[in-house]
Amino acid sequence: MGSHALLSEDQERQLSARALRGDERAVNRLVEANLRLVAHVAREYQRQGLAMDDLISEGNMGLVKAATKYDATRGLRFAGYAVVYIRRAIEKALQRESSEKMLESRANGQKRSLDAPLGAKPNISLLSVLADGNSPLADGRAYSTALEEQAERALRSLNERETQVVMAYFGIGQEHLTMAEIAADMGLKRERVRQIRDRAVRRMRKVWRNRS
Predict the structure, then answer these.
(1) FRET partner for 144 with CA separation of 20 to 30 A, picked from 32, 50, 184, 199?
(2) What is the pTM of this model?
């Protein structure tokens, strides 16, 4: 990692021009000269869910992406440009890890109660919502473990924000929250939370319908 010398501004300009034309050797040269930057940034994210090796691996992918897009004619040195891509790659990996741990909580002995009633509505749960394509507040019934597993698979199809909204709204692994409470927690408007919830439910229903 420390065996590659830093590049001069002129070298970066030359490599940038070549990299933008698809020259892989130029991309590799930009990457190799900045591996120490990845390690430096990765240290800031230690003890947040990923091992140092994983943080560096994710950061390196961000560095490579930056090297393919860097345009030195805009006046910014490569390190200043690449650090944004490095941080973004690491933070996305941490978010994925957090989601996976949350979604694996049942395997760790923390049942998520996908068939738990929604607040004061005893006949409504996430499973009942997925089973009824006509209403997000449909009547529930008893569900088997196999159906719970299918619901979990549908839940894994969501992105980070959708997962957060659905788990909070349906009280999965936590207390049920109203849309107003979720909006306050996430810094969003209540209507925006409703839109996210509805979009997530539509996506989950699509996965549910296609289950084998």
Answers:
(1) 199
(2) 0.52
